[in-house]
């Protein structure tokens, strides 16, 4: 669950990470009196907004209104901008990139600090990057602030301030179940303060039950993906024209891969998971057919999900839906399922490769 | 010593009174596993599939000698259940539970390390050793005893491939599902090291998917340490970047974790990589003849 900048900054304030103050605007009418140079920033959950023109500087009322009306409605990485954050422009003496994330390799949280912040951190010189593995039993040790100040800022002066930001960032990261906490840039002002100018926070959806106050609507999901999620099904919309329903993420991905070898592309992908309920199967078919695929391929390896249950769901769905179907069943009760489907004139295949070839052929009809 | 499960393995099922726990404790018994206890707070004294249920894991350990646990406890309570098992001295904890918060997994993996125990999963199907037993939910009927070991990040795709092997007459020594989450207790390299040592295993199948760099690390480990023939299958070749493909861990982010990078790392390590699941037994026979 990706938070927008202003939501991230609300958390920063809650945990005491010094950051800039500002207000949200949904249109030029929301712009307040201008007394200092300002920055107008698109509020979206995707990166790259600076490069896309979603950040503008402005010094008077007219400029701010112009920037607001130009940014609102922009398309940034597939998201339409609905609101901007208007903040005071800060004079900067130096800047850093700072993030805490979960490192899959070490299976530990990792702190990363890069000498220069900004938009090009991905291409930073490795000698400018320092990282520390963090233990959940220890948290953020004090020495890290001293070490980072000496080796990255090359000045022991801000060590205490950096250590304080690091400790608060750790508390936010751990207490709020963050997958990622990124401050880019963390700046030093001429009067010697440290300030987080941006905030990127990604929360773990699976930990949402611990944070009932963080009810944030995930954007960047299509309507159909959101509808499936509300029904407890995992659906991903892609850009091909074959609908794929399978059980288990790996098997669903494998089905897409084999389809591609036959020159067909998945248009929508639904993972049934471990259900053994014919109504869920029927619902899945109804959802996938809404994406209007040319053909739907159902690929089931029966275990917890029994093949005959799936057959029942398919037969029920077929009563209401006019869909071109290719079915492949293996595993628990496959013979029974094949017989049930055959009685209804639905051919159930045996091999994955042959079913994918059939689906690819029928979409060309 | 066989891989993870041996003749001395005695299982306690945490969450045995739930739908999944009840069904799979029965299936584990049918597969020949010594399931000696269930543990569910407040339900001590009853029996499920003839298995005595205890209120705490430490009671189960004391009274039945359980040394491995299979966890079906819902995600909200899984952390406490696993800590309870580790504190009771359980050596192997298999976490079937899906949707465990990532920070809980981080904490549990470190705590298990501190206790000197092993966690498999979370979000995994467990492991099965035909003729010996299984810890988890893999379907009994797909297996055939033999000498090919399988390690995978997936569930049903593993069943598909194991079934394919069995139907081609290739039996298995041990099949291990390490789980589809970004943070897991046991990774490819650790399982491969056990397969390499295992006298019952003559060849290895690795089933990977997009996301992370575990397959690349596995490839590196194989080229240094594994002498037995390895065949791989990688799924998600056609997955677009930035989308979570069903598994929480199956995501290509910032250009990392693509199927292409995994396939080329494995090929470089001398591993044959199948394009479709059906190809796995064919490549495996060819690799065994080399």
Describe what this molecule looks like in 3D.
The complex is a heterodimer of chains A (365) and B (290). By secondary structure, chain A is an alpha+beta fold. Helices cover 32% and strands 26% of the residues of chain A. Chain A contains ten helices and 18 strands. Chain A has helices at 5-14, 61-71, 143-153, 159-175, 223-230, 249-261, 278-290, 307-320, 334-343, 352-362, and strands at 22-25, 38-42, 55-58, 75-76, 79-80, 84-88, 94-103, 108-114, 129-133, 178-188, 194-196, 200-203, 234-237, 242-246, 266-271, 295-302, 325-331, 348-349. In chain A, the strands form four sheets. In chain A, strands 7, 8, 9, 10, 11 and 12 form a six-stranded antiparallel sheet that branches. In chain A, helix 3 (143-153) crosses helix 4, helix 7 (278-290) packs across helix 8 (307-320) and helix 8 (307-320) packs parallel to helix 9. The longest helix of chain A is centred in the middle third of the chain and has 17 residues, at 159-175. The relative contact order of chain A is 0.09. Chain B folds into two domains: 11-120, NAD(P)-binding Rossmann-like Domain (Rossmann fold, 3-Layer(aba) Sandwich), CATH 3.40.50; 139-289, Succinyl-CoA synthetase domains (Rossmann fold, 3-Layer(aba) Sandwich). Helix content of chain B is 35%, strand content 22%. In chain B, the strands form two sheets. In chain B, strands 3-4-2-1-5-6-7 form a seven-stranded mixed sheet, sandwiched between helices. Chain B has a seven-stranded mixed sheet with strand order 9-8-11-10-12-13-14, sandwiched between helices. At the A-B interface, helix 6 and strand 15 of A face helix 4 and helix 5 of B.
């Amino acid at each position: 669950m990706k938070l927008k900048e202003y939501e991230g900054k609300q958390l920063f304030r809650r945990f005491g990470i010094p950051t800039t103050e500002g207000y949200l605007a949904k249109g030029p009418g929301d712009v307040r009196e201008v007394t200092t140079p300002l920055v107008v920033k698109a509020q979206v959950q995707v990166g790259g907004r600076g490069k896309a023109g979603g950040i503008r500087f402005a010094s008077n009322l007219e400029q701010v209104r112009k920037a607001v009306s130009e940014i609102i409605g922009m398309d940034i990485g597939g998201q339409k901008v609905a609101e901007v954050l208007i903040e005071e422009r800060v004079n900067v003496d130096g800047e850093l990139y700072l993030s805490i994330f979960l490192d899959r390799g070490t299976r530990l949280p990792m702190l990363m600090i890069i000498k220069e912040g900004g938009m090009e951190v991905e291409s930073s010189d490795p000698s400018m990057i320092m990282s520390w593995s963090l233990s959940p039993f220890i948290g953020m040790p004090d020495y890290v602030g001293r070490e980072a100040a000496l080796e990255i800022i090359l000045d022991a002066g801000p060590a205490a301030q950096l250590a304080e930001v690091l400790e608060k960032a750790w508390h936010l990261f751990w207490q709020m179940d963050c997958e990622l906490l990124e401050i880019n840039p963390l700046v030093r002002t001429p009067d010697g303060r440290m300030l987080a100018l941006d905030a990127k926070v990604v929360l773990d959806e699976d930990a949402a039950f611990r944070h009932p106050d963080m009810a944030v609507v995930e954007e960047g999901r299509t309507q159909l993906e959101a509808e499936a999620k509300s029904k407890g099904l995992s659906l991903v919309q892609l850009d091909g024209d074959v609908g794929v329903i399978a059980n288990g993420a790996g098997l669903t991905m494998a089905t897409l891969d084999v389809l591609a070898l036959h020159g067909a592309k998945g248009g929508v992908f639904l993972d049934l998971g471990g259900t053994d309920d014919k109504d869920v199967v029927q619902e899945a078919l109804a959802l996938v057919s809404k994406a209007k695929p040319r053909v739907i391929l159902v690929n089931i390896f029966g275990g917890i999900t029994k093949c005959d249950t799936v057959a029942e769901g398919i037969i029920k769905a077929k009563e209401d839906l006019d869909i071109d179907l290719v079915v492949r069943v293996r595993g628990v009760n496959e013979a029974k399922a094949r017989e049930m489907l055959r009685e209804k004139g639905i051919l159930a295949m045996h091999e994955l490769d042959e079913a994918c070839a059939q689906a690819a052929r029928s979409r060309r009809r | 010593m066989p891989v993870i499960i041996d003749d001395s393995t005695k299982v306690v099922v945490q969450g045995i009174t739930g739908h999944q726990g009840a069904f799979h404790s029965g299936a584990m018994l049918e597969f020949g596993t010594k399931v000696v206890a269930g543990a569910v707070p407040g339900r001590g004294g009853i029996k499920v599939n003839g298995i005595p249920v205890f209120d705490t894991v430490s009671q189960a350990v004391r009274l039945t000698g359980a040394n491995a646990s299979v966890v079906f406890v819902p995600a909200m309570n899984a952390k406490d259940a696993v800590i309870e098992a580790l504190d009771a001295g359980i050596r192997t904890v298999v976490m079937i539970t899906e949707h465990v918060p990532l920070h809980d997994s981080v904490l549990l993996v470190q705590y298990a390390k501190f206790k000197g125990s092993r966690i498999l999963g979370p979000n995994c199907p467990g492991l099965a050793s035909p003729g010996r037993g299984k810890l988890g939910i893999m379907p009994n009927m797909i297996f055939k005893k033999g000498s090919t070991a399988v390690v995978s990040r997936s569930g049903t795709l593993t069943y598909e491939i194991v079934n394919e092997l069995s139907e081609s007459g290739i039996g298995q020594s041990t099949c291990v599902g390490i789980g589809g989450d970004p943070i897991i207790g046991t990774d490819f390299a650790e399982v491969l090291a056990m397969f390499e040592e295992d006298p019952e295993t003559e060849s290895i199948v690795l089933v990977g998917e997009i996301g992370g760099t575990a397959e690349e690390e596995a490839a590196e480990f194989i080229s240094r340490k594994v002498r037995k023939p390895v065949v791989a299958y990688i799924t998600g070749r056609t997955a677009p970047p930035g989308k979570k493909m069903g598994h929480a861990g199956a995501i290509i982010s910032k250009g990392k974790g693509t199927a292409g990078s995994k396939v080329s790392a494995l090929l470089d390590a001398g591993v044959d990589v199948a394009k479709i699941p059906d190809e796995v037994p064919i490549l495996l026979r060819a690799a065994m003849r080399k």
